[in-house]
Write a structure and sequence with these properties.
The protein has four helices and 34 strands. The chain is mainly beta.
């Protein structure tokens, strides 16, 4: 950068949507090389002079939709923003870093996790399921699968009873009932239909259907009902033993992927989105039973998640990146952003349920990262603690982030502020 550029003055206007921090409405003149630390000093001076605060508050600065991570002149040049006009800078109070809360020890890799209120369900490579409280109390272990558990999900939960489902490399899913007061579990149904490992599952919004994806490249749609009329004819042809009467067959099979279906998410009452090792993301219309749209990715996709807040999809892949897709985009570029910080395969991604900009990612570099979509080059925080690759994560409870790892632990991070 030349000496003339270094001395260049730029006019800015500080803005905020946080009413507790009133800022001057007039334009200010600053050096073009001003950096976030210097802007923080400037903003805090205004707030102290107006007796708004006594102690410094740390802010982040949004310039034309992206957080300022460099000098202002570098930021404007990179995004081709004119410096001839007044530049609006939005001041946002910085998030607090999620704090380590608990570490729940398992006997094998924690490959699946789902939280629901105060309860956490985990699945492991030793074929077991575990029920925990968010405070780290272990309520029980279920050992009915014959191979590693790859996915878990809650179907229903109240004070007295719960229902959940697990998917395994043994080609089956199992639907469970749990009497919470007596702390007893019962397998209601064994779902058979896949020919290879069941890698993914997702339950719809009204908890009546679930979809599973497998290494056999197919999707199966199942009823979650304990009493499934669709299976009466099937069951009548079987021996009437108690175990065989639990068998469930899929309501429908969908074909379209060429390799393993790594993740499934519901985006509407009759629409799902799938990510696959075949480098594609597909949107399916379940009423029509076919593919509505598909997106081609650069690499194999290990995990996806959909945000109903932003109506966008994030995908983790084997090339160490997280990509943000607008699956309904009519423009040529469907990839809206690429988030680069991990040093190995990105195995798990989850959106915040209360903030359209925030998500987490976990990878084989042992790290969980908290991101804001407006800062694609730098994550907000690294959540450190795992000693081996991260395999699973969940952020269903806005107050806590959970992650499972090949180090046999589930780590819980307390998230103090999840909206801004």
């Amino acid at each position: 950068m030349s000496a003339n550029e270094d001395r260049k003055q730029i006019q800015i206007r500080l803005q905020t949507e946080q009413l507790q921090y009133p800022l001057p409405e007039y334009a200010l003149t600053v050096h073009s090389t001003i950096i976030p630390k210097e802007l923080n000093t400037l903003v805090n001076k205004f707030l102290k002079d107006s007796n708004t605060i006594q102690n410094d508050v740390e802010f982040e600065f949004l310039v034309c939709g992206h957080f300022l991570r460099t000098s202002l002149i570098e930021h404007t040049e990179e995004r081709k923003i004119s410096t001839e006009d007044v530049i609006n800078i939005v001041c946002i109070e910085k998030l607090s870093s999620p704090q380590p809360k608990d570490c729940l020890i398992h006997d094998d890799w924690v490959s699946a996790v789902a939280s629901n209120g105060k309860w956490i369900l985990t699945g492991c490579y030793d074929n077991t399921l575990h029920i925990w409280t968010s405070k780290g109390n272990h309520y029980g272990v279920i050992n009915k699968h014959t191979q590693p558990v790859k996915a878990v999900a809650w179907i229903s939960l109240n004070d007295d009873n719960a229902c959940f489902v697990s998917a395994s490399m043994d080609h089956t899913c199992m639907i469970w009932s749990w009497n919470i007061k007596e702390n007893t579990t019962k397998c209601l149904h064994v779902c058979r239909g896949h020919k290879r490992s069941v890698e993914s599952l997702s339950v719809n919004y009204d908890k009546t259907l679930m979809v599973t994806g497998s290494w056999d490249s197919t999707l199966h749609i199942w009823s979650t009902s304990a009493q499934d009329d669709d299976n009466e004819e099937f069951e009548s042809k079987r021996a009437k033993s108690d175990q065989e009467s639990k068998l469930k067959v899929p309501k429908r099979t969908l074909k379209g992927h060429k390799q393993s279906v790594s993740q499934i998410v519901w985006s509407d009452k009759s629409e799902i989105i799938t990510g696959s090792m075949d480098h594609t993301i597909k949107i399916w219309d379940l009423e029509l039973g076919g593919i509505k749209h598909e997106v081609y990715a650069d690499k194999s996709i290990l995990d996806i998640d959909y945000s109903p807040l932003s109506r966008t999809v994030i995908a983790g892949s084997v090339d160490q990146h997280v990509r943000l897709f607008d699956p309904r985009s009519t423009e040529g570029t469907i990839v809206k952003a690429k988030f680069t910080s991990h040093a190995n395969w990105v195995s798990t991604v989850r959106w915040s349920t209360v903030d359209e900009h925030l998500f987490i990612s976990g990878a084989y570099d042992n790290l969980v990262k908290l991101w804001d979509t407006r800062s694609p080059k730098v994550p907000l925080f690294d959540l450190i603690g795992h000693e081996d690759k991260v395999l699973s994560s969940d952020w269903s409870n806005p107050k806590q982030i959970v992650s499972g790892s090949a180090d046999n632990t589930l780590r819980i991070f307390k998230s103090k502020h999840t909206t801004r």
